[in-house]
Amino acid sequence: MILFHRIIPIFSTLAILILWESALVYDARYPIFFGVIMTCVFLSLAQLFHWNILSRQFIGFIVTPFLLTLGIGSFLLFLEDAWLRQLVIGLHVVSLGLFLESCFAYLHDPKGYQPYALQNVTGYMHLITLWSVLSSSYAVVLYFQMSAWIVVVPLIFFVLVILLTTLWMNKIAIRKNILFLGVNLLLFVQFFLAMQYLPLSWLVNGLVLVGVYYIVFNISRYHLMHSLNARVLHRYVFFGVTLIFGVLLTARWL
User: Fold this and answer.
1) Any residues with CB less than 8 A from the CB of 102 and at least 6 apart, and which?
2) pLDDT tens-digit map of 60-96
3) What distance in Å separates the CA atoms of residue 178 and residue 187, rounded to the nearest whole number?
4) Where is the signal peptide (predicted)?
């Protein structure tokens, strides 16, 4: 049985890659392929958990890959460049493969599990998820000429789930940090609404906002874990600011 579990990450990611490519070729059946991909994600993780799908642990683990797949699925609807579509699919497949591999090690091979592997992988998956969802939200506002406030409410719920999942993964008490959640959501809404007025494409807007999230949330997370120091602060500020300025300097301004 452990051998069967061992090959799940490999075969699942390969199957999902084939399904994504098929969805791009047969775009008229995109919803069907997307539904099958979501099913594959669920079945893969359910098998690793021995089908204990009602357990709190399974529910906590399934949220991240589900949100990522939903984000990528909506993102691909707005992308026109073939290379960018392949990049997004590659990010989904690789990150999902690493996640399933970490889940296998955590559940079935504790000696081979690298400490904090799941926390690190889910952190990167959340960044990809936010980029895809935020960019898609800006695209909806742009293409359908609607108010940004209309998409703010579902976005708040989406980001809240990501924040709660991150706190849970890092074993941070949620009830004691309601203020933290409120402040981060308020900052997110303010930045999201402000970014729409910049003369940038919807792709760039989403990426810049991800950079802001990367700085603010990670610093807050380490503060809640009582692990914030000058080295951690400088690291996240440096990489976050570098990402933001790199995107802005290379972006096509309208």
Assistant:
1) 113, 114, 117, 118, 121
2) 999 999 999 999 999 999 998 899 999 999 999 999 9
3) 14
4) none
CA gyration radius, the chain: 19
Q: How far, in Å, CA of 191 to CA of 164, rounded? A: 20
pTM of the model as a whole? 0.92
Yes or no: say if 142 and 206 are a contact pair by the CB < 8 Å rule: no
Residue-level pLDDT at 115: 84
Mean pLDDT score of the chain: 90
Residue 4 scores a pLDDT above 80: no
Could you read off the pLDDT of 117-143 as tens digits, one per residue?
999 999 999 999 999 999 999 999 988
